[in-house]
Amino acid sequence: MIRAPVKVKIGANEYIIRKMEPFVALRLFGDLQRRVLGPAAGLIAAFTKGESTDVEADNKALTVGIEALSKAMAGPDLEYVANLLINKEYIAVITEAEPDGIKCDVKVADQVMGDMFEIVELCKEIATVNWQDFGMRVRGLFGRAA
User: Fold this and answer.
1) Comparing C-alpha atoms, which of 93, 127, 119, 116 is closest to residue 16?
2) For residue 1, is it within any domain?
């Protein structure tokens, strides 16, 4: 099944994200779950506690999650994730200087991005395009654990 590329605006640029082939996505997901998903569990939990109206409690949960993630992941781990996901075979960027778009790898991203948060946002968008429905499909396939 071929899906149309997804366009996202991040900072001053527009990125075009093409979904990875299934076996590429599977391999990368395995690498990511080993290096990222375990350490990120605390941060994810902070966002999935349910519908809360207690802003102070939500902020505290978010802070605890970020602290847990920062203790578990060092700079090389974060850079590893960016290098893994920002692949010129699947990402293009449209900039003011390149209105027709160019293939985007980490070297290009480093030149066109405004700050590190844009890197994080692009990685999140790439993950969303490739694995957004993964959790729901796995639960449906295997059922929920009791």
Assistant:
1) 93
2) no
